[in-house]
Design a protein that fits this description.
This protein is an alpha/beta fold. The protein has a domain at 18-157 and 236-304: Rossmann fold. It has helices spanning 65-71, 99-113, 125-134, 155-162, 174-185, 193-200, 221-226, 229-245, 263-269, 293-304; strands at 22-30, 33-42, 49-54, 76-80, 117-123, 141-147, 204-206, 212-214, 249-255, 277-281. The protein has an 8-stranded mixed β-sheet, sandwiched between helices. The longest helix has 17 residues, at 229-245.
C-alpha cells in the first residue's frame, strides 16, 4: 500500500473489512428443541444503531448484499437467514415454518444484538415478520420498511409460489441455476447478468452427486400447501389487526406489476394504522430486490430522514 492509498476500515479483532459480511449464529427455541439461526453482519460490530434486513419466503440473507454495502458505513446491518434457509438449521417439525415462530427467533436475535436504535427492512415474508414484531407491545423498531407485502396476500401469487416452492431441482452449474431461477423470478424486474448471478450464487449449495441444489429446506412448503381459504381469511384478519397496532414510521415499497400486493391494499395501508408512505417502482413485480440504485436510495433516504 503506497502513501496515496486510503486505509481499509476494519471491524475490530477479526480484521474484516466493514464492507464484507461476517457470518454469525444465535441459538433459538422451537417445539422440538433448539436450532441455530445464521445471520450476516456488516459494518462496525460496536455500532448500536442496527438495521435488520429479512428476506422473502425461499430466499436468504445475502439477498441484501448491495443494500448492506450502501448502509454499513453508517449502520450495523444484520441480515439473518431465516430458519430453514441459507446457513441456518432446518427444523424437525415443518409446521414450525410460520411467521409467529420467525418473530420469536428475531426477538432472540435482537436480544443478542442489544441495539440502542433498531430499524427493520423486510421483503415479502420478511415484511410479515416485521409487522408481527412491530405490533408487539414494547417493540423496539424505530423505522419499518415493508417491501411489496401487506396484510392481504393475493391468492394468485400464492398459486404461483406454490407451483415451484419445495420442488426438488438440480443444476449442473451456477449459470444453469441462474437461468432456471430467472424463469420463476423475472417479476423481480430488470437485472444485469452480473447482478442476477450475484443474487443466485448464495441460493445454491453443493449437491452430494455434484452440481448444485437450492439452499433451503423443501419442507418450508408444507405450511404453505396446508393452508386453506378459511385459514387464509383468519390470517389476513390477524395481519390487519397487527398492521393497525404498528406505531413506528413506515415505508411501503411496491412493484407496480406486483401480483402479491395489490394497488388497492397498498392504498389502504397509507390510510390506516401507521399510514405508510408508499413508493412504487415501475417495471417491477413481486418483489423489488433493493439492488437497483433508485431502490437503494429510496431506502437510505427513509432511514436517514
Amino acid at each position: 500500500m503506497d502513501a496515496t492509498t486510503p486505509p481499509v476500515a476494519l471491524s475490530g479483532a477479526l480484521n474484516t473489512p466493514l464492507d464484507q459480511p461476517q457470518l454469525k449464529h444465535v441459538m433459538c427455541l422451537d417445539s422440538k428443541g433448539l436450532h441455530r439461526m445464521a445471520y450476516w453482519e456488516w459494518g462496525d460490530p460496536a455500532n448500536d444503531h442496527v438495521v435488520i434486513c429479512v428476506h422473502g419466503l425461499s430466499r436468504q440473507g445475502r439477498d441484501f448484499d448491495t443494500l448492506a454495502r450502501a448502509l454499513c458505513g453508517q449502520y450495523r446491518v444484520v441480515c439473518p437467514d431465516v430458519v430453514g434457509r441459507g446457513q441456518s438449521d432446518w427444523l424437525q417439525d415443518p409446521m414450525g415454518y410460520q411467521v409467529p415462530a420467525y418473530v420469536a427467533d428475531m426477538v432472540t436475535l435482537i436480544a443478542r444484538l442489544q441495539p440502542r436504535t433498531l430499524d427493520w427492512i423486510g421483503t415479502s415474508m420478511g415484511g410479515l415478520i416485521g409487522m408481527g414484531l412491530c405490533a408487539l407491545r414494547g417493540a423496539p423498531v424505530r423505522k419499518l420498511v415493508l417491501n411489496d407485502v401487506g396484510p392481504r396476500i393475493e391468492p394468485a401469487s400464492l398459486t404461483r409460489i406454490g407451483s415451484y416452492l419445495g420442488r426438488p431441482v438440480h443444476f449442473n452449474t451456477v449459470e444453469e441455476a441462474a437461468d432456471a431461477l430467472w424463469q420463476i423470478s423475472s417479476s423481480f424486474g430488470p437485472h444485469t447478468r452480473e447482478q442476477w448471478l450475484a443474487l443466485t450464487a448464495p441460493q445454491l449449495k453443493p449437491a452430494p452427486q455434484g452440481g448444485f441444489i437450492l439452499h433451503y429446506d423443501p419442507a418450508i412448503a408444507v405450511p404453505v400447501k396446508a393452508a386453506t381459504p378459511e385459514m387464509a381469511a383468519v390470517g389476513e384478519a390477524f395481519l390487519w389487526r397487527a398492521y393497525g397496532a404498528i406505531q413506528c414510521d413506515t415505508l411501503l415499497l411496491r412493484g407496480t406489476e406486483s401480483d402479491l400486493l395489490s394497488a388497492q391494499t397498498a392504498q389502504t395501508m397509507t390510510e390506516v394504522g401507521p399510514k405508510a408512505r408508499l413508493v412504487e417502482f415501475a417495471g417491477v413485480g413481486h418483489a423489488p430486490t433493493l439492488v437497483q440504485p433508485d431502490q437503494v436510495r429510496t431506502v437510505m433516504d427513509f432511514l436517514d430522514a
